[in-house]
Design a protein that fits this description.
globular, alpha+beta
Length: 254
């Protein structure tokens, strides 16, 4: 098992222990599977060629609708060339680990012909599964959106319960300013870098650039930064986020 996978399950184990010993929290956190495929176009193909195959892909998944799976294309926007070298990414989400495994079994059996067509359009050398925890589910859904991703490390001595209590306070603040965006944490699992040093990827989502800009204005110029510093202190060490534009290809979430 890879080191980052051990970190994910260790974090989950510690969270489970501490969560039952804290009067403020009563249930275990929920982690759902998220897969990320970082891809480059091949054979002079582009996104238009990729999108032509999506209807057939949706038809196939409709045949296995008992195994919910949602998917998005992810296009790099604000980033550094040294940290982002792919043309686009695929983001897939299932509502449970069992359903994620089942939809892949169906894909292996009935999707081989379609998979060959996809392979002629793009290559995806980096493919990773994360355990995603919703810290603040997005209030607004849209066909397109904005996603910011940064790598965060939990400072030594900080317990998961302390972090969860800070999250609760931050959520209360976000409620007070009518924040619409989502906050998620992706803990690395199979396929992640073996030498990854971060604890999780911090993922912020918005339904549009306008929604993101409104939230950023409050955060930067409306007092959000000092509030966040007061709540989290030095619990986390996060790098600069990368921004991506997302487009939904299939959404069967409840």
């Amino acid at each position: 098992m890879q080191l980052v996978s051990k970190l994910f399950f260790t974090f989950l184990f510690l969270f489970s222990i501490n969560i039952h010993s804290d009067d403020h929290m009563s249930s275990n956190p929920v982690f759902v599977p998220v897969e990320i495929q970082q891809c480059k176009f091949a054979n002079n193909k582009d996104m238009d060629d990729f999108l032509k195959l999506i209807p057939a892909w949706n038809d196939l998944l409709d045949e296995y609708s008992q195994f919910p799976y949602s998917g998005w294309t992810v296009i790099p926007h604000y980033r550094s060339g040294s940290t982002v070298s792919f043309d686009f990414a695929w983001l897939g989400v299932s509502d449970s680990w069992e359903n994620f495994g089942s939809i892949y079994d169906a894909w292996f059996v009935d999707g081989s012909e379609l998979a060959q067509k996809f392979d002629k359009i793009r290559t995806c050398e980096t493919q990773t599964i994360f355990g995603s925890q919703a810290i603040r589910p997005a209030k607004t859904r849209s066909e397109t959106g904005v996603m910011l991703v940064s790598n965060c490390t939990l400072k030594e001595g900080t317990t998961p319960v302390e972090l969860a209590m800070a999250d609760s306070k931050w959520n209360e603040y976000l409620d007070s300013i009518d924040s619409e965006g989502g906050i998620y944490r992706w803990f690395p699992g199979p396929g992640a870098e073996v030498d990854a040093e971060y604890t999780f990827k911090n993922v912020l989502t918005n339904s549009s650039m306008t929604e993101w800009g409104k939230a950023s204005e409050i955060y930067v110029n409306g007092g959000g930064i000092p509030v966040q510093m007061q709540i989290y202190g030095d619990m986390l060490d996060c790098d600069a986020p990368r921004m991506y534009q997302t487009s939904n290809m299939r959404d069967v979430r409840n």
